[in-house]
Input
Amino acid sequence: DNDMLLSLVHIFSYLGKQEDFLYAHSVNASILATNLGLASGYGRSELINLCISSLVHDIGYLKLSQKTINKPSKLTKEEYNLVKKHTIYGVELLSRIEGIPECAADVVHQHHERVDGSGYPDGKRGDEISDYAKIVAIAEVYEAITHSRPYRREKIIPYQAVKTIVQEEKNSFAPEIIKVFLNSVSPYPPGSFVLLNSGAIGRIISVNKSLPLRPVVEIFFDATGKPPEQPMRIDLAKAPVVNIDKALDEDDL
Output
């Protein structure tokens, strides 16, 4: 179920330690990529290959220094260049593992390539990049910017993340993948919070497929800042006078 998959991504973060970010990132990116594969009409075998490939896309990090990976400040140019080698290291590690689909090597090697040629390690363009790698590229970027990192405690809420990918990074990703992304990853995913024009604050319960900007909202606090006496849900698709003013970070509630 699309809503359940996206809910998992926004619920599943760290397991209590900052060092767990790579584990959480890999699982979340796999969930997102598989969801995009579903939305693209992939069959069962293709989804399995995409799921496995996306789960191991950052396996090359295992050959990097933990001190560098978990550095609490911005990486130096030299450190960043070393981290970029994880795509090469990952292919080397995959060659030692039996049962991994062949397409996984392309995903591990190419998930930082960009269709406009601005990526690494080889500056590939367009169709030079595998379709699976194109999907994992957008999935892992969305996951990364919506979750904090050892060097970056702040995170971007889903609404701003979708806006960033569509507006600022639109030349980096394949247009057909961006279209699928927009149709399957709502700016207001289940579990996220919003401020309504009534002054009430609510949590997204589900997304209306035909009207993704008008989801079903459960009211947490009314306009006076108090929880409602009775559970209250509003289907914005059926309430034309009620609108979302802005998305909220739950940490600010």
Summary: The mean pLDDT is 89. DSSP finds ten helices and five strands in the chain. The beta strands are 193-196, 201-208, 211-221, 233-235, 244-248.
